[in-house]
Amino acid sequence: MKSDTWAGLSQVALLLVALAVVYRPLGGYLAHVYTSARHWKVERLVYRLVRVDPDSEQRWSTYARGVLGFSFVSVVLLYLLQRLQTVLPLGLGRPEITPSVAFNTAVSFVTNTNWQSYVPETAFGHLVQMAGLTVQNFVSAAVGMAVAVAVIRGFVRAGTDRLGNVWVDITRGVIRVLLPLSLVFAVLLIGLGVVDSLSAGVAVTGIDGAQHTIALAPAASQEAIKELGTNGGGVFNANSAHPFENPNAWTNQVEIFLVLVIPVSLTRTFGLMVGDRRQGHAILSVMALLWGGMLAVIWWAEAHPNGPAALLAGAGMEGKETRFGVPSSALFADSTTGTSTGAVNAAHDSLSGLGGGGAMLNMLFSEISPGGVGTGIYSILVFAVVAVFLAGLMVGRTPEYLGKKLGRKEVTMASIAMLAMPTLVLVMAGIAVVLPATAGALTNFGAHGLSEVLYAYASTANNNGSAFAGITVTSDWFQSTLGVAMALGRFIPILAVLCLAGGLAVQKKVPLSAGTLPTSGPLFVSMVAGTVLLVAALTFVPALALGPIAEALS
Amino acid sequence: MRWVSTLAKQGAAGLRLLLVLTVLLGVVYPLVVWGIGQLPGLRDKADGSVVTLDGRAVGAQLIGVDPVDPNAKADPTNDRYFHTRPSALSQDALGPGDPSTSGASNLSADNPKLIDLIKKRQQEIAAREGVPIGQIPADAVQASASGLDPDISPAYAELQVRRVARVNGLSEQQVERIVEATTSGRAAGALGEPTVNVLALNLAVLAAKH
Asked: What confidence tens digit (pLDDT) does each residue in A146-205 have?
């Protein structure tokens, strides 16, 4: 085997070891955070200021309205911060933000998508970056975790209609998990070379006498939570390909680790909370299978590109950084699209047909390998419910999962959560491709042009945020429909899974019997993975055949 | 109606929580990180790893901006600098990008525009270095993701040694040694790819001349 293949495999192994080391402590800590009855002093202060009773619990519908209300005021505040940047302090003299950019960006960061239709280093001043975007990086991730924990409680509890307190769950997620970890990793990233400056830029005169201004930003503080919260919005336009956001192979490894660490550890939390760690291992196995499989596809595709430009140059280095090369770019692309991150260290639009298609398919699996912070675990639980239901149909028994009967209501809610994203992607991308103006918005044509449109809606409806960035999305059509895709792609599944959890919590536990399908062995793992593949294949094969598959085969 | 009034009540609580968290996460947290970044040992990195020459800021170690030799206009073989990879931020096929922004070409591998660009770059580099096109490594003719890639592959550095030595009046062995000393291997032997920092190369050549 070639030496760079060995190096790449060692890199993957190092990442897996790091994740394995923190899996138990972090998973256990997260379970403690969301089950402990004690409040920290600083949290009590927050609850007093917010005027909520932290010891009262809420029905699923109140919990859901908390999530919706919090997200709505977040969109409004972030919209206003952008629109008022020219009159507020720390705007750095940067221009007025148009209503369509402000709307799209506000929805984008509140829904944990972090899709960007602007060039950050020339569009936003520090106030929007810090008080607007950085805040949403934290709280959108905390909302995702809160929903996940509420859903798990639905399986754990019996005979109650209460799922927890949404304000407590959000506050604890921020104060006990995201803030301390971000602080530590932000400082580590600075130590490794990531910038963190309140200056707008530094003027230099090159060795050739040419004058340049190099853009600077408070990057490290946002970079840490950008990855840890699976957000992915770049402080600079090139995102994690920018040398100031991701200067070397070590920062690259740290950023990939941060992207994966919470979604992976939450499977441990799930296992602990339901009182059977093997249940968490089964879910983790499905995630790992898909993550590993797609990594192999993307890596192989990038190492063996078949596009004419790559063949002419001798390798596929267009849109890749020298310090990352093929393996580190493939590993990043797989991890960012398998989670809801969407940060990129290579230009996905310039990936090979199969490599770019692999990144797109990873999102179209509903982002469960291992998925976003919180969103990954509740999305895969939806597939688990559907898999159990399908198995129940085959043997003619009422399906049960984790001691709860899955009746008509449960399966309906799971189906809504599962099918919202494919519906949004196919309908909206379908309309977009027949609009005459769309052709003018594309950088590339033919099959790859279709991929640019499909990728945009796949990314936004899944709250990913990465792009085939050759597409120009500044028209009102794209700004508004992509914004709607982000909002519906986030909140329809959230409402459906909270409703599902509300129903489950009321149910009594069904005792295990000889006829109960075991949900922790290899059979169950293959059933859930099979359900994911089947749903993606049934919904997306025709669209993918016209885009990335056609490009890969030509 | 009760649905709406609960939503409004929850929204009001949400707004209060959002304001509290904005102070904590949007003001205190970024300023604390910035403050720590200003401590000795971290400060140079936090401020952009700026490189100075005789007290003058000449660039950032992490940011690649292609230097332009005015003599190369008349005769490309008379170019004294090591060159970076192409930048999608440049107007020309080769040449400097703009570090006040960043970005990639986003061209797909079947885009005729990219194929033409690569052919043009291959011809220009072949003429500049006096080598056949087959010897030019892939990173030399394909733009990076950031448009500001500070590094080139060791193969591309190697390709430029003969010209840089000749134009600067140095021996090829001297320049070889500079390339060797500037080359970084994979981190921990496994992470990333071997690289050569172009600004460091050019500064070392300048130093060797004096």
From this structure: 999 999 999 999 999 999 999 999 999 999 999 999 999 999 999 999 999 999 999 999
Residues A223-246: b if buried by 16+ CB within 10 A, e if exposed: bbbbbbbbbbbbbbbbbbbbbbbb
Are residues A322 and B7, on separate chains, in Cβ contact within 8 Å?
no
Give the nearest chain B residue to A6 (CA atoms): B190
Unique residue bearing structure tokens 């591309």: B156
- Any chain A CB within 8 A of the CB of B82? no
Burial of B83 (0-12, 13-18, 19+ CB in 10 A): buried
Q: How far is A86 from chain B (nearest CA, A)?
A: 18
Identify each DSSP E strand in A12-100 by its residue range: 58-59
Q: For position B1, what pLDDT does the model report?
A: 64
Spatial separation of the C-alpha atoms in residues A189 and A246, rounded to whole Å: 9
Give the ranges where A125-215 is alpha helix by DSSP (H): 126-127, 135-156, 166-172, 179-191
Q: What's the rounded Cα separation, in Å, for the pair A424 and A462? A: 10
Range list of β-strands (E), A402-521: 404-405
End-to-end CA distance of chain B: 82
A107 and A79 Cβ atoms separated by less than 8 Å: no
Measured between alpha carbons, how far is A154 from A549 in angstroms, rounded to an integer?
A: 40
Predicted interface score ipTM higher than 0.85: yes
Please give the structure tokens belonging to residue A350: 């310039």
**Which residue is closest to B34 within chain A, CA to CA?**
A196
pTM of the model: 0.97
- Residue A483: which residues within 8 A CB-CB, separation 6 or more? A103, A104, A107, A108, A460
DSSP secondary-structure letter at A509?
P
Mapped to the 3 state alphabet, what secondary structure does B59-98 carry?
Answer: EECCCCCCCCCHHHCCCHHHCCCCCCCCCCCCCCCCCCCC
Query: Residue A324's closest CA among B107, B65, B153, B106?
Result: B153
3-state secondary structure of A58: strand
